Protein backbone atom coordinates (compact mmCIF):
# COMPACT_ATOMS: atom_id res chain seq x y z
CA UNK A 1 0.00 0.00 0.00
CA UNK A 2 1.45 3.30 -1.04
CA UNK A 3 1.11 6.37 1.16
CA UNK A 4 -0.68 9.27 -0.55
CA UNK A 5 0.43 12.68 0.68
CA UNK A 6 -1.06 15.42 -1.43
CA UNK A 7 0.61 18.75 -1.99
CA UNK A 8 -0.99 21.59 -0.07
CA UNK A 9 -0.37 24.04 -2.89
CA UNK A 10 -2.11 21.67 -5.32
CA UNK A 11 -5.29 21.82 -3.29
CA UNK A 12 -5.00 25.52 -2.53
CA UNK A 13 -4.58 26.35 -6.20
CA UNK A 14 -8.13 25.25 -6.88
CA UNK A 15 -8.90 28.94 -6.64
CA UNK A 16 -6.72 29.47 -9.64
CA UNK A 17 -8.25 27.04 -11.88
CA UNK A 18 -23.25 6.94 13.34
CA UNK A 19 -21.17 9.38 14.57
CA UNK A 20 -22.89 11.67 11.96
CA UNK A 21 -25.39 14.12 13.45
CA UNK A 22 -25.14 12.66 16.97
CA UNK A 23 -21.42 13.35 17.43
CA UNK A 24 -20.85 15.57 20.44
CA UNK A 25 -18.75 18.15 18.59
CA UNK A 26 -20.57 17.92 15.28
CA UNK A 27 -23.59 20.08 16.08
CA UNK A 28 -26.30 20.66 13.50
CA UNK A 29 -26.79 24.39 13.06
CA UNK A 30 -28.38 26.68 10.51
CA UNK A 31 -30.52 23.94 9.03
CA UNK A 32 -28.30 21.30 7.46
CA UNK A 33 -24.95 22.95 8.23
CA UNK A 34 -22.68 20.98 10.56
CA UNK A 35 -20.14 22.75 12.74
CA UNK A 36 -16.89 20.78 12.86
CA UNK A 37 -13.70 20.91 14.83
CA UNK A 38 -10.56 19.46 13.28
CA UNK A 39 -10.47 16.54 15.71
CA UNK A 40 -14.11 15.69 15.03
CA UNK A 41 -13.58 15.90 11.28
CA UNK A 42 -10.75 13.37 11.56
CA UNK A 43 -12.87 11.11 13.75
CA UNK A 44 -15.84 11.14 11.35
CA UNK A 45 -13.63 10.48 8.33
CA UNK A 46 -12.01 7.47 10.01
CA UNK A 47 -15.41 6.07 10.97
CA UNK A 48 -16.85 6.29 7.47
CA UNK A 49 -13.89 5.90 5.12
CA UNK A 50 -14.37 2.89 2.85
CA UNK A 51 -10.64 2.21 2.53
CA UNK A 52 -10.40 1.97 6.31
CA UNK A 53 -13.34 -0.44 6.35
CA UNK A 54 -11.69 -2.54 3.64
CA UNK A 55 -8.45 -2.80 5.61
CA UNK A 56 -10.43 -3.74 8.71
CA UNK A 57 -11.97 -6.63 6.75
CA UNK A 58 -8.49 -7.70 5.62
CA UNK A 59 -7.33 -7.61 9.22
CA UNK A 60 -10.17 -9.87 10.34
CA UNK A 61 -9.35 -12.27 7.53
CA UNK A 62 -5.70 -12.37 8.67
CA UNK A 63 -6.89 -13.15 12.20
CA UNK A 64 -8.93 -16.08 10.87
CA UNK A 65 -5.98 -17.38 8.87
CA UNK A 66 -3.74 -17.30 11.94
CA UNK A 67 -6.33 -19.09 14.07
CA UNK A 68 -6.88 -21.76 11.44
CA UNK A 69 -3.14 -22.40 11.11
CA UNK A 70 -3.10 -23.03 14.86
CA UNK A 71 -6.16 -25.26 14.60
CA UNK A 72 -4.43 -27.39 11.97
CA UNK A 73 -2.33 -28.95 14.75
CA UNK A 74 -5.45 -30.37 16.45
CA UNK A 75 -6.71 -33.93 15.89
CA UNK A 76 -9.64 -34.48 13.56
CA UNK A 77 -12.68 -36.61 14.31
CA UNK A 78 -15.33 -37.78 11.85
CA UNK A 79 -18.41 -39.96 12.13
CA UNK A 80 -20.07 -41.91 9.32
CA UNK A 81 -23.35 -43.74 8.94
CA UNK A 82 -24.09 -45.87 5.89
CA UNK A 83 -27.43 -47.50 5.11
CA UNK A 84 -27.92 -49.85 2.16
CA UNK A 85 -30.63 -52.18 0.93
CA UNK A 86 -30.49 -55.03 -1.58
CA UNK A 87 -33.41 -56.74 -3.30
CA UNK A 88 -33.67 -60.23 -4.73
CA UNK A 89 -30.84 -62.72 -4.52
CA UNK A 90 -28.12 -60.98 -2.47
CA UNK A 91 -24.97 -61.73 -0.50
CA UNK A 92 -25.63 -62.13 3.21
CA UNK A 93 -23.07 -59.78 4.87
CA UNK A 94 -22.61 -62.18 7.79
CA UNK A 95 -22.48 -65.62 6.06
CA UNK A 96 -21.16 -64.43 2.66
CA UNK A 97 -23.65 -66.85 1.14
CA UNK A 98 -26.48 -66.08 -1.21
CA UNK A 99 -29.79 -65.17 0.34
CA UNK A 100 -33.05 -64.62 -1.49
CA UNK A 101 -34.43 -62.17 1.09
CA UNK A 102 -34.39 -58.39 0.80
CA UNK A 103 -31.48 -57.38 3.03
CA UNK A 104 -30.98 -54.05 4.85
CA UNK A 105 -27.43 -53.29 5.98
CA UNK A 106 -26.33 -50.53 8.38
CA UNK A 107 -22.72 -49.46 9.19
CA UNK A 108 -21.64 -47.00 11.90
CA UNK A 109 -18.10 -45.64 12.30
CA UNK A 110 -15.83 -43.14 13.99
CA UNK A 111 -12.48 -42.03 12.55
CA UNK A 112 -9.82 -39.88 14.22
CA UNK A 113 -6.42 -38.71 13.03
CA UNK A 114 -3.56 -36.64 14.31
CA UNK A 115 -0.46 -35.32 12.60
CA UNK A 116 2.64 -36.08 14.69
CA UNK A 117 5.37 -34.64 12.47
CA UNK A 118 5.43 -32.83 9.14
CA UNK A 119 8.80 -31.12 9.07
CA UNK A 120 7.62 -28.08 11.04
CA UNK A 121 5.13 -27.04 8.37
CA UNK A 122 2.31 -26.27 10.82
CA UNK A 123 4.56 -24.45 13.29
CA UNK A 124 6.12 -22.29 10.56
CA UNK A 125 2.70 -21.64 9.01
CA UNK A 126 1.54 -20.29 12.38
CA UNK A 127 4.58 -18.00 12.58
CA UNK A 128 4.11 -16.88 8.97
CA UNK A 129 0.44 -16.01 9.51
CA UNK A 130 1.32 -14.23 12.75
CA UNK A 131 3.69 -11.97 10.81
CA UNK A 132 0.99 -11.45 8.17
CA UNK A 133 -1.50 -10.45 10.87
CA UNK A 134 0.91 -7.93 12.36
CA UNK A 135 1.59 -6.53 8.88
CA UNK A 136 -2.16 -6.11 8.34
CA UNK A 137 -2.41 -4.25 11.63
CA UNK A 138 0.31 -1.86 10.46
CA UNK A 139 -1.46 -1.44 7.12
CA UNK A 140 -4.63 -0.41 8.94
CA UNK A 141 -2.71 2.04 11.10
CA UNK A 142 -1.07 3.48 7.99
CA UNK A 143 -4.32 4.07 6.10
CA UNK A 144 -5.82 5.72 9.17
CA UNK A 145 -2.85 8.08 9.45
CA UNK A 146 -3.07 8.81 5.75
CA UNK A 147 -6.78 9.66 5.95
CA UNK A 148 -6.11 11.87 8.97
CA UNK A 149 -3.44 13.75 7.04
CA UNK A 150 -5.78 14.26 4.09
CA UNK A 151 -8.46 15.64 6.42
CA UNK A 152 -5.97 18.08 7.97
CA UNK A 153 -4.96 19.21 4.47
CA UNK A 154 -8.57 19.72 3.41
CA UNK A 155 -9.37 21.54 6.66
CA UNK A 156 -6.42 23.92 6.21
CA UNK A 157 -7.35 24.46 2.57
CA UNK A 158 -10.81 25.63 3.63
CA UNK A 159 -9.38 28.02 6.21
CA UNK A 160 -6.98 29.34 3.58
CA UNK A 161 -9.83 29.88 1.12
CA UNK A 162 -11.87 31.66 3.78
CA UNK A 163 -8.97 34.02 4.52
CA UNK A 164 -8.38 34.69 0.83
CA UNK A 165 -12.08 35.35 0.31
CA UNK A 166 -12.06 37.74 3.26
CA UNK A 167 -9.14 39.68 1.75
CA UNK A 168 -10.83 39.77 -1.66
CA UNK A 169 -14.00 41.19 -0.11
CA UNK A 170 -12.05 43.81 1.81
CA UNK A 171 -10.40 44.83 -1.46
CA UNK A 172 -13.79 45.52 -2.98
CA UNK A 173 -14.78 47.59 0.06
CA UNK A 174 -11.65 49.69 -0.33
CA UNK A 175 -12.44 50.25 -4.00
CA UNK A 176 -16.03 51.21 -3.17
CA UNK A 177 -14.74 53.85 -0.75
CA UNK A 178 -12.37 55.09 -3.41
CA UNK A 179 -15.24 55.31 -5.88
CA UNK A 180 -17.26 57.35 -3.38
CA UNK A 181 -14.40 59.80 -2.86
CA UNK A 182 -13.68 60.01 -6.58
CA UNK A 183 -17.33 60.75 -7.38
CA UNK A 184 -17.14 63.78 -5.12
CA UNK A 185 -13.93 64.97 -6.78
CA UNK A 186 -15.41 64.42 -10.26
CA UNK A 187 -18.57 66.30 -9.31
CA UNK A 188 -16.41 69.09 -7.94
CA UNK A 189 -14.47 69.19 -11.21
CA UNK A 190 -11.18 68.20 -9.56
CA UNK A 191 -10.86 64.92 -11.49
CA UNK A 192 -11.80 63.77 -14.94
CA UNK A 193 -14.84 61.41 -15.24
CA UNK A 194 -12.57 58.76 -16.74
CA UNK A 195 -11.02 58.21 -13.32
CA UNK A 196 -14.42 57.23 -11.93
CA UNK A 197 -15.11 54.89 -14.85
CA UNK A 198 -11.75 53.20 -14.36
CA UNK A 199 -12.48 52.64 -10.68
CA UNK A 200 -15.87 51.13 -11.45
CA UNK A 201 -14.22 48.78 -13.93
CA UNK A 202 -11.69 47.89 -11.22
CA UNK A 203 -14.54 47.13 -8.80
CA UNK A 204 -16.20 44.83 -11.35
CA UNK A 205 -12.92 42.95 -11.72
CA UNK A 206 -12.52 42.61 -7.96
CA UNK A 207 -16.08 41.39 -7.54
CA UNK A 208 -15.33 38.76 -10.15
CA UNK A 209 -12.34 37.71 -8.04
CA UNK A 210 -14.64 37.38 -5.02
CA UNK A 211 -16.80 34.96 -7.01
CA UNK A 212 -13.71 32.95 -7.93
CA UNK A 213 -12.53 32.73 -4.33
CA UNK A 214 -16.02 31.75 -3.20
CA UNK A 215 -15.99 28.99 -5.80
CA UNK A 216 -12.62 27.83 -4.48
CA UNK A 217 -14.00 27.74 -0.95
CA UNK A 218 -17.02 25.73 -2.06
CA UNK A 219 -14.80 23.20 -3.86
CA UNK A 220 -12.53 22.80 -0.85
CA UNK A 221 -15.54 22.25 1.40
CA UNK A 222 -16.79 19.62 -1.02
CA UNK A 223 -13.41 17.89 -0.80
CA UNK A 224 -13.67 17.68 2.99
CA UNK A 225 -17.31 16.55 2.86
CA UNK A 226 -16.31 13.76 0.49
CA UNK A 227 -13.51 12.72 2.86
CA UNK A 228 -16.02 12.61 5.73
CA UNK A 229 -18.23 10.31 3.63
CA UNK A 230 -21.17 10.83 5.98
CA UNK A 231 -24.50 11.00 4.14
CA UNK A 232 -26.02 13.14 6.92
CA UNK A 233 -23.51 15.94 6.30
CA UNK A 234 -24.12 18.11 3.25
CA UNK A 235 -22.84 21.48 4.46
CA UNK A 236 -20.12 22.35 6.97
CA UNK A 237 -18.83 25.25 8.99
CA UNK A 238 -15.37 24.87 10.50
CA UNK A 239 -14.13 26.00 13.86
CA UNK A 240 -11.18 28.32 13.39
CA UNK A 241 -7.84 27.15 14.77
CA UNK A 242 -4.84 29.12 15.90
CA UNK A 243 -2.35 28.99 13.05
CA UNK A 244 1.29 29.31 14.22
CA UNK A 245 3.37 32.08 12.69
CA UNK A 246 5.96 30.67 10.28
CA UNK A 247 9.65 31.29 10.91
CA UNK A 248 12.80 30.33 9.05
CA UNK A 249 14.46 28.68 12.04
CA UNK A 250 15.17 24.98 11.54
CA UNK A 251 12.58 22.37 12.46
CA UNK A 252 13.02 21.21 16.05
CA UNK A 253 14.31 17.83 14.86
CA UNK A 254 17.16 17.48 12.36
CA UNK A 255 16.50 15.59 9.15
CA UNK A 256 18.70 12.59 10.03
CA UNK A 257 17.16 12.27 13.48
CA UNK A 258 13.71 12.69 12.01
CA UNK A 259 14.37 9.88 9.51
CA UNK A 260 15.66 7.60 12.29
CA UNK A 261 12.50 8.23 14.33
CA UNK A 262 10.28 7.69 11.30
CA UNK A 263 11.96 4.34 10.56
CA UNK A 264 11.11 3.14 14.05
CA UNK A 265 7.44 4.13 14.03
CA UNK A 266 6.12 4.43 10.47
CA UNK A 267 3.53 1.66 9.88
CA UNK A 268 4.44 1.22 6.21
CA UNK A 269 8.05 0.41 7.08
CA UNK A 270 6.98 -1.90 9.88
CA UNK A 271 4.56 -3.69 7.58
CA UNK A 272 7.25 -4.15 4.93
CA UNK A 273 9.70 -5.61 7.46
CA UNK A 274 7.04 -7.96 8.84
CA UNK A 275 6.35 -9.25 5.35
CA UNK A 276 10.04 -10.02 4.94
CA UNK A 277 9.84 -12.13 8.09
CA UNK A 278 6.67 -13.77 6.79
CA UNK A 279 8.39 -14.63 3.51
CA UNK A 280 11.31 -16.21 5.39
CA UNK A 281 8.85 -18.47 7.22
CA UNK A 282 7.27 -19.20 3.85
CA UNK A 283 10.58 -20.74 2.76
CA UNK A 284 10.55 -22.99 5.83
CA UNK A 285 6.97 -24.01 5.05
CA UNK A 286 7.96 -24.92 1.47
CA UNK A 287 11.01 -26.92 2.65
CA UNK A 288 8.77 -28.96 4.97
CA UNK A 289 7.27 -30.52 1.86
CA UNK A 290 10.50 -32.48 1.37
CA UNK A 291 10.32 -34.01 4.85
CA UNK A 292 8.59 -37.26 5.90
CA UNK A 293 5.13 -36.99 7.46
CA UNK A 294 4.21 -39.10 10.49
CA UNK A 295 0.56 -39.45 11.45
CA UNK A 296 -1.53 -41.40 13.92
CA UNK A 297 -5.04 -42.58 13.14
CA UNK A 298 -7.73 -44.66 14.82
CA UNK A 299 -11.14 -45.95 13.82
CA UNK A 300 -14.04 -47.90 15.25
CA UNK A 301 -16.97 -49.40 13.35
CA UNK A 302 -19.96 -51.67 13.86
CA UNK A 303 -22.59 -53.25 11.58
CA UNK A 304 -26.28 -54.21 11.75
CA UNK A 305 -28.49 -56.09 9.26
CA UNK A 306 -31.88 -57.74 9.15
CA UNK A 307 -30.07 -60.87 7.95
CA UNK A 308 -29.62 -61.70 11.62
CA UNK A 309 -32.44 -62.13 14.10
CA UNK A 310 -30.32 -60.64 16.87
CA UNK A 311 -31.37 -57.25 18.34
CA UNK A 312 -30.05 -53.99 16.86
CA UNK A 313 -27.75 -52.99 19.71
CA UNK A 314 -26.60 -56.59 20.24
CA UNK A 315 -25.48 -56.70 16.62
CA UNK A 316 -23.57 -53.42 17.02
CA UNK A 317 -21.90 -54.73 20.16
CA UNK A 318 -20.93 -58.05 18.55
CA UNK A 319 -19.61 -56.52 15.31
CA UNK A 320 -17.37 -53.84 16.78
CA UNK A 321 -14.08 -53.35 14.94
CA UNK A 322 -11.31 -51.13 16.38
CA UNK A 323 -8.18 -50.11 14.49
CA UNK A 324 -5.18 -47.95 15.41
CA UNK A 325 -2.42 -47.22 12.93
CA UNK A 326 0.78 -45.23 12.59
CA UNK A 327 1.63 -44.00 9.13
CA UNK A 328 4.84 -42.61 7.66
CA UNK A 329 4.78 -40.88 4.29
CA UNK A 330 8.19 -40.32 2.66
CA UNK A 331 8.28 -38.08 -0.43
CA UNK A 332 10.64 -39.62 -3.00
CA UNK A 333 9.74 -37.98 -6.29
CA UNK A 334 7.11 -35.24 -6.55
CA UNK A 335 7.80 -34.15 -10.14
CA UNK A 336 9.96 -31.31 -8.77
CA UNK A 337 6.88 -29.68 -7.19
CA UNK A 338 8.66 -29.19 -3.84
CA UNK A 339 11.72 -27.74 -5.54
CA UNK A 340 9.53 -25.28 -7.41
CA UNK A 341 7.65 -24.25 -4.25
CA UNK A 342 10.93 -23.61 -2.43
CA UNK A 343 12.22 -21.50 -5.34
CA UNK A 344 8.97 -19.51 -5.47
CA UNK A 345 9.11 -18.91 -1.71
CA UNK A 346 12.66 -17.63 -2.13
CA UNK A 347 11.52 -15.21 -4.83
CA UNK A 348 8.73 -13.97 -2.56
CA UNK A 349 11.29 -13.28 0.17
CA UNK A 350 13.50 -11.46 -2.33
CA UNK A 351 10.58 -9.34 -3.52
CA UNK A 352 9.55 -8.60 0.08
CA UNK A 353 13.09 -7.39 0.78
CA UNK A 354 12.97 -5.13 -2.27
CA UNK A 355 9.64 -3.68 -1.12
CA UNK A 356 11.09 -3.04 2.34
CA UNK A 357 14.04 -1.19 0.75
CA UNK A 358 11.64 0.82 -1.41
CA UNK A 359 9.60 1.75 1.67
CA UNK A 360 12.76 3.09 3.35
CA UNK A 361 13.86 4.91 0.22
CA UNK A 362 10.46 6.54 -0.30
CA UNK A 363 10.33 7.52 3.36
CA UNK A 364 13.77 9.14 3.19
CA UNK A 365 12.94 10.99 -0.02
CA UNK A 366 9.56 12.20 1.28
CA UNK A 367 11.16 13.48 4.48
CA UNK A 368 13.93 15.25 2.58
CA UNK A 369 11.41 16.89 0.27
CA UNK A 370 9.12 17.87 3.13
CA UNK A 371 12.06 19.33 5.05
CA UNK A 372 13.16 21.46 2.10
CA UNK A 373 9.58 22.53 1.37
CA UNK A 374 9.12 23.57 4.99
CA UNK A 375 12.20 25.80 4.98
CA UNK A 376 11.25 27.29 1.62
CA UNK A 377 7.71 27.99 2.85
CA UNK A 378 9.06 29.75 5.94
CA UNK A 379 11.44 31.89 3.89
CA UNK A 380 8.69 32.66 1.38
CA UNK A 381 6.40 33.78 4.21
CA UNK A 382 9.04 36.07 5.73
CA UNK A 383 9.82 37.53 2.32
CA UNK A 384 6.10 38.02 1.75
CA UNK A 385 5.79 39.91 5.05
CA UNK A 386 8.46 42.36 3.95
CA UNK A 387 6.89 42.66 0.52
CA UNK A 388 3.41 43.37 1.90
CA UNK A 389 4.78 45.94 4.33
CA UNK A 390 6.65 47.77 1.56
CA UNK A 391 3.72 47.62 -0.85
CA UNK A 392 1.31 48.95 1.78
CA UNK A 393 3.49 52.03 2.21
CA UNK A 394 3.79 52.42 -1.53
CA UNK A 395 0.04 52.04 -2.03
CA UNK A 396 -0.80 54.64 0.61
CA UNK A 397 1.44 57.10 -1.18
CA UNK A 398 -0.03 56.20 -4.57
CA UNK A 399 -3.56 56.58 -3.21
CA UNK A 400 -2.83 60.09 -1.97
CA UNK A 401 -1.20 61.06 -5.24
CA UNK A 402 -4.09 59.59 -7.23
CA UNK A 403 -6.63 61.58 -5.23
CA UNK A 404 -4.51 64.68 -5.76
CA UNK A 405 -4.43 63.96 -9.49
CA UNK A 406 -0.64 63.73 -9.73
CA UNK A 407 -0.67 60.12 -11.07
CA UNK A 408 -3.02 58.41 -13.49
CA UNK A 409 -5.32 55.48 -12.79
CA UNK A 410 -2.97 52.94 -14.44
CA UNK A 411 -0.20 53.74 -11.96
CA UNK A 412 -2.59 53.69 -9.03
CA UNK A 413 -4.18 50.40 -10.12
CA UNK A 414 -0.76 48.76 -10.58
CA UNK A 415 0.15 49.57 -6.98
CA UNK A 416 -3.16 48.24 -5.67
CA UNK A 417 -2.97 45.07 -7.78
CA UNK A 418 0.55 44.32 -6.57
CA UNK A 419 -0.52 44.76 -2.95
CA UNK A 420 -3.55 42.54 -3.40
CA UNK A 421 -1.47 39.76 -4.96
CA UNK A 422 1.13 40.02 -2.21
CA UNK A 423 -1.49 39.72 0.53
CA UNK A 424 -3.04 36.66 -1.08
CA UNK A 425 0.37 35.06 -1.60
CA UNK A 426 1.23 35.71 2.05
CA UNK A 427 -1.89 33.88 3.22
CA UNK A 428 -1.15 30.90 1.01
CA UNK A 429 2.50 30.67 2.10
CA UNK A 430 1.39 30.75 5.73
CA UNK A 431 -0.93 27.78 5.34
CA UNK A 432 1.61 26.01 3.16
CA UNK A 433 4.15 26.31 5.97
CA UNK A 434 1.70 24.91 8.52
CA UNK A 435 0.89 21.90 6.40
CA UNK A 436 4.59 21.19 5.74
CA UNK A 437 5.08 21.24 9.48
CA UNK A 438 2.27 18.75 9.91
CA UNK A 439 3.87 16.41 7.37
CA UNK A 440 7.07 16.30 9.42
CA UNK A 441 4.98 15.83 12.58
CA UNK A 442 3.23 12.97 10.81
CA UNK A 443 6.51 11.18 10.12
CA UNK A 444 7.40 11.43 13.81
CA UNK A 445 4.05 10.08 14.93
CA UNK A 446 2.97 13.36 16.50
CA UNK A 447 -0.65 14.43 16.68
CA UNK A 448 -1.93 16.05 13.51
CA UNK A 449 -4.63 17.93 15.38
CA UNK A 450 -3.79 21.42 16.60
From TrEMBL:
Keywords: Cell outer membrane, Coiled coil, Membrane, Signal, Transmembrane, Transmembrane beta strand, Transport. Residues 349-380 form a coiled coil. The keyword Oxidoreductase does not apply. InterPro entries: OMP_efflux (IPR003423), TolC-like (IPR051906). Gene3D superfamilies: Outer membrane efflux proteins (OEP). SUPFAM superfamilies: Outer membrane efflux proteins (OEP). Residues 1-21 form the signal peptide. It is found in: Cell outer membrane. Belongs to the outer membrane factor (OMF) (TC 1.B.17) family. PANTHER family: OUTER MEMBRANE PROTEIN TOLC (PTHR30026). This is TolC family protein.
